[in-house]
Amino acid sequence: MRLLAALIFLAGLVALVARIFGASRRGPPKTGVPAPESNESARPPELLTRSDGQTLDFASTLADGNGFPLPDWDQVATWTDTGEEPASARNQARRAWLLHLAASLDGLSLTETRDALVLSSFPRSTAQAVARFVVDVRGRILGLLDGIAEYPRGEQSVLLLFDEQDDYYRYVANYYPEDGEFAYSGGMFIKDGCPHFVSVKIDLSMLEPVIAHELTHNSLAHLSLPLWLDEGIAVNTERHLIFQPSNAQEAIDRLTRHHGFWNAERVQEFWSGESFQRTDDGNELSYDMARHIVDLLGRDWPMFTRFVRSARREDAGAAALRAEFDLDLGQLAATAIGMKEQPGWSPRPETWASIREKARS
């Protein structure tokens, strides 16, 4: 009996060791998310087929957009949204589009996970790391912005990484008014047609905050937020998720610049969203003031989520703020950057049309 017990104990010990070392060789347990796969050799499809057999001549929907193949997304939506599995059809159309983009740009290939499509010229292992980061950050944003963040169920996030700044700006120019001037940016979320975000291929340590920022915009796209609120949430989320060292002297200098820049007229640019497109100091200061305002409001999360869900672009969220916090938005903005109450700082939507016309002249 003793021999039998010893043999049973030994067999159990061997099995335990085998499981431990086997697990270490296999890596972490599966989570249900497929491993990233490269589609380097995939050919751009001409024809798409839905699960019910309905087809779309996808190639015929493509038009030239400053040298990039861009689908007529309204035409594509007619095909994707009328079937039984619209999310699957949208993913198929987005994958097809990225493959056509890859064919038009030397060296780019597509890496895919269940939740992400990444087009870049990164080596396969790096592209896979980027795709995994996208999936990870999506989950963290949903947790951090509980009650306001949302991604369409079953749809993949789309990330385009251009090799050259010129290609990046030539591409995003498709989404600006003709001959419009736009500010320097490291990344951009584009909601039109196919929600996706774009950036330039840079070191991963620099790319991570860009991804976190643009994925936050992606998660808020279902809301009709004023631009300042959308950007303020995105900047704060980026800073929360990705460590970025702070400099006290820079913060003090920035407050001094705030006090010298903002006046009643320029604050109306801020509420209308135009100041975020400025090509001078006002661009950086717009993002920073939005961050400060959101930081103040976000300290009471239940009230903040109710405010966000009811805020509207038409008045920059002024009515929602008054209803939820009993605060004046102009007064709050001044307080956020360490100034006393300023006359004329409350949103005046009746002035915004002339502000936009002036900015485009």
Q: Could you say what the CATH architecture of the largest domain is?
A: 2-Layer Sandwich
Largest beta-sheet characterization: 6 strands, mixed
Global shape: globular
Give average pLDDT, whole number: 87
The share of residues in helices is: 40-55%
Total helices: the number is: 14
Spans of at least 5 consecutive residues with low confidence? 1-38
CATH topology name of the largest domain, in short, is Zincin-like
> Class of the largest domain, according to the CATH hierarchy?
Alpha Beta
CA-atom Rg in angstroms: 25 Å
The secondary structure category is alpha+beta
The H/E string reads HEEEEEHHEEHEHEEHHHHHHHHH
Q: What percentage of the residues does DSSP assign to strands (E)?
A: 5-15%
Q: Tell me the distance between the termini.
A: 95 Å
Tell me the number of structural domains. 2
The number of E-state strands comes to 10
Spatial arrangement of strands, main beta sheet: 1-6-7-8-10-9
